[in-house]
Amino acid sequence: MKQLFMKYGIENNDQQLMQFERYYQLLIEWNQKVNLTTIVDHQEVIKKHFLDSCLLLSQYPNDLFTGKKIIDIGTGAGFPGIPLSIILRDSEFLLMDSLNKRIHFLSLVIEELGLDHVTVIHGRAEDFGKDEEFREKYDFCISRAVAALPILLEYCSPFIKVDGSLLLYKSVKVQEEIEEAHNALDLLNCDVRQLTKLADETDFQRYILEIYKQGQTPAKYPRRAGKPKKDPL
């Protein structure tokens, strides 16, 4: 694991490596009763879940996130939030998911790994995005394998402060998604800042799309639960 991460310029200490290993064990144990992942082979999980979640740090320095509040929308089994939080000990993470069984799993992971800078919350982005406790309170939003860009923008941008950023994990179709998202970007006062290729192997292609929030999210967004997916902006 250490050598694979170092290939992409990401360092892990011994404690972090042990945390990743325990995370893997819990993932496999819980996957027998809760649908968390279809990838279960040890090396595949390390590469396609753990490394993939942390590839962001091959292009963005750890110090950028020091003291910052980061929200992971649609975290699922904790990707990318948990792997990033193992490395970024000086950031504050909130992981959100709509399935309570996953939240129970993540709560155990956080306790077992001693991630006291991470909290989890059960619910939908459309609901919490209207809540003043969460709305425009975060410096960064991260999200991986959740939805197409026009939908994801409506889910995520309400949580981000003005001048904050969405850091979205995307695959080879990212350019098509950007073309389809022009209207959503305009309506939500967001702008594409940069697109960075993180990995380019035959079975492992990953981009980070950085979206900059240049103005407040209009009060009517996000729309009610289910509407962004049914009728994308």
How confident is the prediction overall: mean pLDDT?
A: 94
pLDDT < 50 runs, ≥5 residues: none
SSE-based structural type = alpha/beta
| Tertiary shape | globular
Percent strand: 15-25%
Radius of gyration: 17 Å
- Counted beta strands: 7
Counted by DSSP, the helix tally is 10
Profile the largest sheet.
7 strands, mixed
Characterization of this structure:
The chain is an alpha/beta fold and 233 residues long. 37% of the residues lie in helices and 24% in strands. It has 10 helices and 7 strands. The chain has helices spanning 2-7, 14-31, 42-54, 81-87, 100-113, 125-128, 149-156, 174-180, 182-187, 227-230, and strands spanning 69-73, 92-97, 118-122, 138-144, 160-170, 190-201, 204-213. The protein has a 7-stranded mixed β-sheet with strand order 3-2-1-4-5-7-6. Helix 2 (14-31) runs antiparallel to helix 5 (100-113) and helix 3 (42-54) crosses helix 4 (81-87).
